[in-house]
Amino acid sequence: MGSRYGGNKQIDGFGPNNETILEYAIYDAIQAGFGKVVFIVRAEILDLVKDRFLNKINDQIQVEFVIQSLTSLVPAAHQNPERTKPYGTAHAVLCAKEVIEEPFAVINADDFYGKEAIERLGAFLTQPQGDNQHCMVGYALKNVLSKHGTVNRGVCEANDNDELTGMTEREKISREGEKVISRMGEDVLEISENTPVSMNCWGFQPSFFEDTEKRWKVFLEENKDNIKAEFYIPTVVNDLIAENKASVKILEGGKTWFGVTYPEDKVTVEEALNFLHQKCVYPGKLWERKKIRM
């Protein structure tokens, strides 16, 4: 909801022609062979999102819109009128289960992941995989910090086969001199700047919906009186790995990332996108009235 940014950063313009960050991921996804894009939005901004995106992309790729609300997939007995906070990323994904039957990627709308990351996701998802073989694109911690404040990141652990073995959410991470530090209360932890972290750049098989739905029902029961509890993708993934019910390949491709957490981040993102246009990574105008699929 962009509380620290101060607005709907997912639909704010950052590119030289007022493009949103998400438009670049959609552009890259079309070129990488993805066939459908699903917007998961709050009902209050549905019309705004449609106005912002639909005319640009509806002749380029199949488009679906899904609502995530405080009552979506929540039985009446578990609905709490005092709750105002969304239920989190895993709940958002679950809201799209009726419109997705194929392997799919999941990204944040306000993060720029880079063309290579989207290509790697597409390559993995179009190859034969087991029903429970998922993937994520890892990013080096040093490349996903903000100059304007602290950030929270899912710090990853991996085995020798580049498979995820677990993630730990680290809070209030920032660079302090030559070190990268996480401060959680009185605990101070130094983290290697090359440590891979999750930026919510995932690739899942359709089985993820069934596995997530089982855990969603448990989450609702355990948190029926907690109006701030959230249901996160990393929590589901950690559980599946711990129970040996899934494997998650960490893909290379996390070379370029930028995003907006604070208002001051906007200038940095604008400059980065302008640079990519100047280097012809993207055309002068992202959406010419022609098919862009390669």
TrEMBL record:
The keyword Nucleotidyltransferase applies. Pfam families: NTP_transferase. Gene3D superfamilies: Spore Coat Polysaccharide Biosynthesis Protein SpsA, Chain A. Coiled coil: none annotated. Signal peptide: none annotated. Residues 18-169 form the Nucleotidyl transferase domain. Keywords: Nucleotidyltransferase, Transferase. Transmembrane segments: none annotated. This is Nucleotidyltransferase. It comes from Echinicola rosea.
